[in-house]
Amino acid sequence: MNREHTHAVVLRVRGNAVFLPLVTSFVELSAGAFGLGKKEALGLTLAAEEIFTHLCGVMGAKGGEVRVRCRTHGHYVRADFSFPAVDFDVRAFNLTAKVSPADDRCEDEMGLVLASRAVDRLNVTHARERGLRLTLIKEKAYPKTEADIPLSSRPLQQFSIRPPERDELKVLALLTGKYYRREGLPGFFDYPGKLVDMVGGGEYHALAALGPAGEIGGGILWCWAGSKTVEFYGPYVFEQEPNTRMRNALLDAAISTIARTPAVGLLNRCPPPDFPQEYFEPLGGIPLLSEDGTVLEQRAWFRLMHEDPGAVAWVHPELEEFVRGEFKRLVLPREVRMVRDEGETANAHSLLSADFDRPQKTVTLKPVWPGRDAGENVAGHVALLRCEGLRDVFFALDLGQSWQAVFTPHVLARGFVPRLLLPYAAEGDMVVFQLQV
After folding, report:
1. Among residues 15, 110, 283, 351, which is most buried (max CB within 10 A)?
2. CA 91 to chain centre
């Protein structure tokens, strides 16, 4: 299971506006070569143009080296800008960003706002060897599944398990959408072509149970969810007997494959109704509001694949009781280190990412960059998202990154409640908060 199964091209230039046409042409041609449509490639190119223009301004006349790396992951193209640490203000990348014509920084920040809106995801990280790294991600466009496609399955007494071919993956997606409630499925099952590229790009992996004549009776998928955890979806079975051996055979085959990787844990956050609970330990549940107004609990399950080597968890005092309680209940070997604001110098502005799941009407906020305005930023996002008609708003906090802990009191103050602790679901363990209605 290769986590770096990608194709990439790299351009190195000085941070000087004279190289702007070269950078934009490089990104546009790379996006097209990696399969983005014209509209999506144009969006990524526009974002790259605004980012490089801004970098040229803040890096000054001398300009340091800017490294632009474009790579494909099958269903999306990623452009990384690596550059020396400079006075780079991330405020304009927030979902809540507004630029006023009366503001002297209007023209400069308008370009960054446009860049953030032109791509699907954006991230800023410290790249130890290169200062800062800004990542732009643009997904390919795919047609949605047509309704009422005449597909069905039947009970299979004999079957074999193997990775499905491309067209078999499409049928697997269609059958999963037919036999399982849409509310309990990841959104990618609505886009069979996207699922093919997700697996073809190497980030996702799949197994299918097929009968002697090639009939598809079930399937299972998985991907890396963090530094040491693999998240899986399924197993899904179609027209098979309850507690079928096919369901268990699919799970056993996936576990056998994953066991040959460095993965420490196996996680499932959206189990199907016939999920084999006997294989796993419960992590807890999240109450979700369905379309008909009823409240359903979505449970999460976890299984250790190898001995847990232990880890450090960076925790704010206001979250200590919850975290220590979960570590004790789940018997996780962790060293808890407390994080407090003790007056040290901090960035002026923070940055949050917002990952929308439109079919499920949910969004997950994640810290991208710390700043003194963290409380104001969290409050602004909550106010905006309450007007979006969403069923649920989540906040994910990575205990493996100490700087994220400072968001804790602001998240709790705005009505979020900690629901789950997911072992190794990020750089370290992840705490998932849910906004109370």
Report:
1. 351
2. 21
CB atoms within 10 A of CB 413: 12
In the chain the first and final C-alpha atoms are separated, in Å, by 41
| CA gap 368, 355 in Å, rounded | 12
Q: Which amino acid is at 161?
A: I
Upper half-sphere CA count for residue 437 (Cβ side, 13 Å): 8
Structure tokens belonging to residue 364: 């997950």
The pLDDT of residue 4 is 45
Q: Which two tokens stand for residue 134?
A: 């800004």
- Give yes or no for a contact between 289 and 391, defined as CB atoms under 8 angstroms apart: yes
Of 110, 141, 172, the one marking the end of a domain is: 141
Q: At 375, which amino acid appears?
A: G
Nearest to 293 by CA among 437, 116, 151, 195: 437
Q: Which helix H or strand E contains 137, and what residues bound it?
A: strand 131-139
Tens of pLDDT, residue by residue over 324-379, are 999 999 999 999 999 988 777 778 899 999 998 877 788 999 999 999 999 999 99
> The domain containing residue 243 runs over which residues?
160-304
In this structure, the answer to whether residues 340 and 273 fall within a common structural domain is: no
CA–CA separation, 319 vs 316, rounded Å?
6
In this structure, what CATH number is given to the domain that contains residue 333? 3.40.630.30
Domains: count for the chain: 3
How far is it, in rounded angstroms, from Cα 348 to Cα 346?
6
Look up residue 184 and give its amino acid.
Answer: G
Whole-angstrom CA distances from 65 to 81, 122, 131, 371 are 10, 21, 11, 26
Q: What is the DSSP string of 148-178?
A: T--------SS-EEEPPPHHHHHHHHHHHHH
266 and 321 in a single domain? The answer is no
Helix count and strand count (H, E) for the chain: 9, 19
Burial of 140 (0-12, 13-18, 19+ CB in 10 A): buried
